[in-house]
Amino acid sequence: MNQKIFFTSDHHFGHTNIIKFSERPFATVEEMDSELIKRWNEKVSQRDIVYHLGDISLARPEQTKEILDQLNGSIFLVQGNHDKSALSYKKRFEWIKDYYELSIEDADAPNGRQKIILFHYAMKVWRSSFRGTWHLYGHSHGHLFDDETSRSFDVGVDCHNYAPLSYDEVKAIIMKKDWKAPFGDREL
Fold it and tell me: Within 13 Å and on the Cβ side, how many CA atoms surround 34?
């Protein structure tokens, strides 16, 4: 079977107040953590890749390690503003960065490669946004207006049934948007 690529953000493992702040449907933080782990592992296999766009855990470092060890896949962390605990277990991540420009082989994309900007925070513009480069972000827990003319959106768990999104799911969402190249078909 092929390796799949997933994107997600803002699990906030161990964060009791996020249940109230984001109106999550869980009675306790233990229930939330358990369900988030379950939904992650239902989609992601051990051989898959996950780009996590920050705020993975606010639990104590020991508890964060236990949670991270239960998650399937190779995890690449684009850190958010609540990742101090996750940073105490750096070896669980393939790398940790503040920002990343990803290129994925895709026959439907220009030149056969889809470029994606990964950042914890939403941006109005990003490198090559006018050429159709995508931007995935987290942080906002679904509280930002989704611009239907922008090839960007929030991949946080609060927006997507508390589970990571596959590349194909991201592509389907992006391609439904009413984006148009600002310079038409002219080469820049």
Answer: 7
